[in-house]
Every structure is written in structure tokens, then in C-alpha cells.
Specification:
single chain; Rossmann fold; six-stranded parallel beta sheet; two-stranded antiparallel ribbon; 8 strands; binds flavin mononucleotide
């Protein structure tokens, strides 16, 4: 009887662990994977419905004094954007930059970001993706700012016709969650189809880029990338 109870408890705990594991990386939770489904030492193939399609990785990210990581030379989202581009062999990487850069000092920039969010600002961008028409799959990266996308990302989304294109969001934040605003992306990106995105903790990316890359690989495998 005791043995049976113990084995039931084990099954219960295993189920709980698997359940929590499924939540990490792409949606929420705090754990990090330590083994990738994709072998990054071997060629990686896109899902069948991506075959022959052109891939753009567009991201917004901020270097300077940042949340929990001190002064950084390269933003957390920037690191993930490069990893996605490398693994998917993206055709282009585009950094979304504002005409007026955000201050490097954290307090100063948070004040501006807050004001921009309160006024639904659309900060002017420094450059366009001139050949946007030629891309089919767009990985779109950003840091979470106040449970939302940074306002310049909305400027980006409203700057193009996304008809026939697929947007796949990814973000970094305080935890492994996404901002919660992702389902609204097609409201701003006219014509876009949306695929399941990926959220990862910015501090973890900064401190453990190689492990973060394995999580990126796991997420890409969940989208259908294979070896
Ligand atoms: C203005 C501002 C607001 C933020 N708001 C949130 C938030 O609401 N939720 C969250 O999880 N992280 C929040 N963060 C943390 C960032 O999302 C996190 O540090 C991220 O990794 C930064 O990415 P980056 O280095 O690519 O700019 C905020 C950071 C800043 C600077």
C-alpha cells in the first residue's frame, strides 16, 4: 500500500515538473533548459512551410545602463536576435533605431519610456527596411517595457504593409514571459499573420548567452526547425 502511494506521488511530481517545463522559455516560468532539441553543430532545416521563404530578423534593443545587468555594450534582445539569425540563416538583420537615441542612464530613459507609453507616442525611426517586400518571415524582437512593446516597435509595425507575411515575436524581460500584448501585433502590423513567440529573461541572456542559445534552439524546434 505504502509503495503504491509513493509511486503515485512520484508520477504526480513528474507530471508537475513536465507541466512547469512546458511553460518555460516560450511563455512563462523561471527555469531554463539545459539541453537543446536541435544539434547546433549540424545543419538546421526550416519547417516545410518556411522552405524557400526569405527571413528577416528585426529587433529593438538598448545598450547602456540596463535593468539588473549594469552598463552593457550590447542589449539582451540584440544577443537573442543574432542567435536567431545565425540558427535560421536569416537573409537580413535589421536594428530598429530611433532618430533620438534613448539616454544611456537608466533613470533618465525610464522616464522617457513611461511618457512615451502614456501618450502612445510613435518615435521617429532612423531607417527603413527598404526591401521589406521581399521578406516572408519576420522575427520581431524587443525588450518588454511596462508590460508592453517599446513605442518605437509600434512605429515599425505601422510603417509597412505586412500582407502575406508572418511575424514571429521574441522578447526579453524580467522573467521568461512575453509582454502579454503579442496578440495585438496584427492590429498594428496590417495584414500580418502571427506565430507563437518566445520570451526569455534578459539577465539570463546577458550572463549565460550560450545557454540562452540552447533555449532559442528549443523554441525554434517547437516551430518546426529540424536537423
Ligand atoms: C523602461 C523599462 C521598462 C521595463 N519594463 C519591464 C516590464 O514591464 N516587464 C519586464 O518583464 N521587464 C521590464 N523591463 C526589463 C527589460 O525588459 C529587460 O531588462 C530587457 O532584457 C532589456 O532588453 P534590451 O537589453 O534588449 O534593451 C523594463 C526595462 C526598461 C528599461
Amino acid at each position: 500500500m505504502m509503495k503504491k502511494l509513493l509511486s503515485l506521488l512520484c508520477i504526480g511530481l513528474t507530471f508537475l515538473a513536465v507541466g512547469c517545463g512546458n511553460m518555460t522559455g516560450s511563455d512563462s516560468g523561471d527555469e531554463h533548459a539545459n539541453a537543446a532539441v536541435l544539434d547546433l553543430a549540424r545543419p538546421v532545416h526550416p519547417p516545410a512551410d518556411f522552405a524557400g521563404k526569405r527571413v528577416l530578423v528585426a529587433f529593438f534593443s538598448r545598450a547602456g545602463e540596463n535593468f539588473e545587468v549594469g552598463y552593457i555594450e550590447k542589449g539582451n534582445t540584440h544577443i537573442i536576435a543574432e542567435q536567431i539569425a545565425e540558427i535560421t540563416r536569416a537573409d537580413k538583420v535589421f536594428e530598429i533605431q530611433t532618430v533620438n537615441p534613448y539616454p544611456a542612464a537608466y533613470q533618465e530613459m525610464t522616464k522617457i519610456a513611461k511618457e512615451e507609453q502614456a501618450s502612445s507616442a510613435r518615435p521617429a525611426l532612423a531607417a527603413r527596411v527598404e526591401d521589406m517586400d521581399s521578406y516572408d518571415i519576420i522575427y520581431l524582437g524587443y525588450p518588454i517595457w511596462y508590460q508592453d512593446l517599446p513605442m518605437p516597435v509600434y512605429t515599425f509595425l505601422e510603417s509597412y504593409d505586412f500582407t502575406g507575411k508572418t511575424i514571429i515575436p521574441f522578447c526579453t524581460g524580467m522573467g521568461n514571459a512575453m509582454s502579454g500584448m503579442e496578440e495585438d501585433i496584427p492590429r498594428f502590423a496590417k495584414g500580418a499573420q502571427l506565430r507563437k513567440g518566445f520570451g526569455i529573461q534578459g539577465k539570463f541572456v546577458h550572463n549565460n548567452p550560450d545557454e540562452a542559445k540552447l533555449e532559442v534552439a528549443n523554441w525554434l524546434a517547437s516551430l518546426g526547425y529540424t536537423n
